[in-house]
Every structure is written in C-alpha cells, then in structure tokens.
Design a protein that fits this description.
This protein has 465 residues and is mainly alpha-helical. It is built from 30 helices and no strands. The model is unreliable at 15-25 (pLDDT under 50). V-ATPase is a heteromultimeric enzyme made up of two complexes: the ATP-hydrolytic V1 complex and the proton translocation V0 complex.
C-alpha cells in the first residue's frame, strides 16, 4: 500500500476522544469536563470590569445560547469573531475556573465538527500570529485540567488542520506529552495517551517523536505496572508507528517484542490482544529487510507468542481481524522455525536480553562452530553480553551471560584479550561477590577460563604453556 494511502487510512481512524466514547467518558478529564459544562460564568461581570470587549461579550453569550443549525450559522457568519473571542478570553482571563470552561467549550466546538479547526487557523494566518503560542503557553499552567484540555485542543488542531504543526512548536508539544507520560501518578495519563494516539497517526509527527527517544519511553512504560486501558493506548501508538518501516528497527532496539509478548500472555481484554497482534503482524509485513523480518519472527517465538497463538485459536472471537492475524502470525512463525539455525536462535535470545538455559548455551558443538561469529558486526553480541552483566538484575540472565563469556574465551583464540578490551573481565570479577550462589558459581567458572592462558590451544591441541 502506498505511503499516501496508509497515512490517509490512519488519519481516518477514530481517535476515541469524543464525548460519546465510553472509555473517554470514564477518564478523569471527561468526568471533570462534564462538571465544568454545568458551571455558570458571569460574563456580564467581565464586561463591566472591561476584561472583555462588547463584541466578545455579544459573541460568547450568543454562542452559548445556540446549538445545532443555529450554531452552525453563527460560526459561518462570524468565523473571524469566533476565533478572536476565544483567543481574547484565554489571553485576558486568568481565573482557573473560567479558563477551564472556555477550553471545554472550544474542545466541544471542534469535536462537533473537525473542520472548525480552520476557524482558528485562518484567524491566526490573517493576523500573522502563531496559531500555537496561545495554547502552548497554557501547557505551563499549574492546573492539570487546563493543561490536558489544552493538549486535546492542540492535538485536534495539529491533526485536523490543513497546516501541520512544525519546528520548535511540534518539538515542544511532543516533549510535553512524553514528559507527561513519565510523570508518576499522572491522573490524566489516559488523556495524554489519547493525544499521542492522534498525533502518531501522522508520519511527520511519529518520525519526530521517534527521534526524541519516544519508542524508549513507550517501552519503559509498557514494561511496568499499568492498567489495560493504557496498555491498549500505548500499544496503539506502537501499531501506528509500525507503518513507518524504519521505526521497526528502533522497536527491536528497545525490545518491544518481548515486552508486548508478556502483555499478550497475560491479557484478558480482547482490545489489548487485537492491537498487539496487529503490531506483531506489521513488524513482519512492513519491513523490506528480510533479515529483520526473520529476526522479528524468531524474537516472537522466543517471547512465547507461538504458544499464546495456539491458545487464542481455541477462543471464539467476533472480530474477524483477530482471527486473520492469528492465522497469519502462526503461519509465519512456524515457517521461521523450519530454517532456524542454532546461531539465529542464540543471537535473537541475546538481543532480547532475556537469557535462559536454552540448549545452545550448553552445546559444545555450538561453541566450537559459532564462537568466531560472536566477533561479527564489531563484537555486537559480545558487547550485549557485557552490557547485560553490567545492567541486569535478573540472576538467571547474569548466570547465563557469565557462562557464555567463559565459553567464548574457551573456544576463541583471542577471546581473553577481546573480553578484557570490552570490559567483560571486570564485570565477571564483580559478580564473584554477588548474593546469588548460582551467579557466583558461573562467574567463578568464567574467571577461571579467563585466567588460564591459551585455553583454546590446550583444549583443542592437547598442549600446555
């Protein structure tokens, strides 16, 4: 499918931010918005205190008393006045309660008709003003509702307007969304995720987001303890990102497959299952690099996806897309196993960061035949093993990585010097004091192999120093 058609399809997806959406209605923002809509603002007092002008007073009172076709006519006749009034109110009124109300009715106005974003865009263009500045400034307000309702409006302007968000404005907004996702205890995280769902449907925006380590942020949050709704929303973000094949490689770097595999295995919600299967399908279908496709398939097998697909096949899903994705993934993963070499299996396991005592580790033949291959791509796999020794808190991973370091040294002539250069010897030495006995044992064996000179020569030629 051509890129233009993909983007068109994605931009037409429901953004799930409407008042009619069941999940949106249960979000903290929507609950508060429902309360705020019932507030009564004394516009007369703002007029009398000269905080707003006569024309703004007339428009806002007429706007609020109209609905349906009458409001459509008003907005058609007074497009410029509409934008002027709303922007003027936001600029001159500082009371949180009133600003909350103004933002809510602006958001409602846009939600009723997405084409109304052009009212604000056209006005800013006519005045030669930055359409984003009034809203981006409100993201710095301390009130959480004001921040997040503003964020909704920005997302709609950015996604529905003819003129895209660009440059420093786009960077500022996406950085704000990224920071909000990572804010502990953010009660509006559902709204933050919804705005990101909207933004990432546009390729320009998702490439910028990916460029600011966005995939890493999504991976970190998804690997933590979050509810199923956030799992769904952030998986949706990953799904739309897979429509840009160049971003799939980033997902591999941040171990998206094993993270989503864990969620899939524990999922009890069809919507979460459906979106993760869609992510996996795209990670096989979209990349043009055959090696990457194969690597992704193997990673899914190691993440126990094939086993979960077998379980899912026993379920009765009303959604035909789920069944189609299950069949597609099962076929591709089974095919990938048929021509899977032991080194492919080992390489994918190391890259996943989830080492376990799979057969290849203890296979003498594997190390004899494949030890030299660990030096390929500038010692890529060896660097990953050393990194795991340095950063992992999983005792199984530490034990297996220590063992693998020792086996590499044992079977590769220059193994000892290479591991020393990469910092592996120091890491293994530190593990001699680890609290877990299995880690200490494997570290001790690895150190012994590192300490013996010309191990390779002694083992394979029967000679000694």
């Amino acid at each position: 499918m051509p890129d233009s058609k993909i983007n068109s399809m994605l931009m037409k997806l429901p953004d799930e931010t409407g008042k009619g959406d069941v999940m949106a209605a249960t979000s903290v923002l929507q609950q508060r918005a429902n309360e705020i809509r019932n507030n009564s603002i004394n516009w007369q007092s703002y007029l009398q205190s000269q905080m707003i002008g006569d024309d703004d007073y007339r428009f806002i009172t007429e706007f609020l008393s109209s609905d349906g076709s009458k409001r459509d006519s008003l907005l058609q006749d007074q497009r410029s006045q509409c934008a002027k009034t709303f922007l003027s109110l936001l600029e001159h009124i500082s009371k949180d309660q009133t600003v909350q109300y103004i933002l809510t009715i602006i958001d409602d106005m846009l939600q009723e008709d997405m084409n109304r974003v052009e009212i604000i865009r056209e006005y800013a263009k006519k005045k030669r003003e930055n359409v984003w500045s009034p809203f981006l400034n409100l993201l710095n307000r301390p009130d959480g509702f004001i921040q997040n309702m503003t964020s909704r409006i920005i997302a709609k302007l950015a996604c529905w307007s003819r003129d895209p968000m660009e440059g420093s404005d786009l960077t500022f907004y996406l950085t704000w969304l990224k920071d909000q996702l990572q804010t502990p205890g953010n009660e509006y995280i559902q709204t933050t995720a919804r705005c990101l769902q909207m933004m990432l449907r546009d390729e320009k925006y998702r490439l910028v987001f990916a460029g600011m380590e966005g995939v890493s942020v999504l991976a970190n949050i998804l690997s933590g303890r979050i509810n199923f709704q956030i799992q769904y929303q952030l998986s949706f973000c990953l799904w739309v990102m897979t429509f840009s094949p160049q971003l799939v490689e980033q997902m591999n770097k941040h171990k998206i497959i094993p993270i989503l595999g864990d969620i899939l295995n524990d999922s009890v919600k069809d919507k979460v299952t459906r979106i993760i299967l869609a992510v996996f399908r795209n990670m096989i279908e979209k990349p043009e690099d055959a090696a990457m496709v194969k690597e992704n398939c193997v990673a899914m097998v190691q993440a126990k996806v094939l086993k979960q697909l077998s379980i899912l096949q026993q379920h009765k899903f009303d959604d035909e897309d789920i069944m189609a994705d299950i069949e597609f993934l099962t076929e591709k993963l089974l095919a990938s196993i048929q021509d899977l070499s032991s080194f492919d299996e080992y390489s994918t396991e190391v890259k996943s960061g989830r080492l376990e005592w799979s057969p290849v580790h203890k296979s003498e033949r594997f190390w004899r035949e494949n030890a030299p291959r660990l030096t390929e791509k500038n010692y890529e796999l060896l660097k990953m093993l050393v990194h795991l020794l340095e950063t992992s808190r999983d005792t199984l991973v530490l034990a297996v990585a220590s063992y693998d370091i020792g086996e590499f040294v044992r079977h590769y002539p220059r193994g000892k010097s290479i591991i020393e250069q990469l910092g592996g010897k120091q890491m293994v030495m530190q593990l001699l004091a680890h609290e877990d006995p299995n880690v200490r044992y494997e570290a001790l064996l690895a150190v012994q192999k590192l300490m013996v000179h010309n191990w390779y020569v002694k083992i394979n030629r029967g000679t000694t120093d």
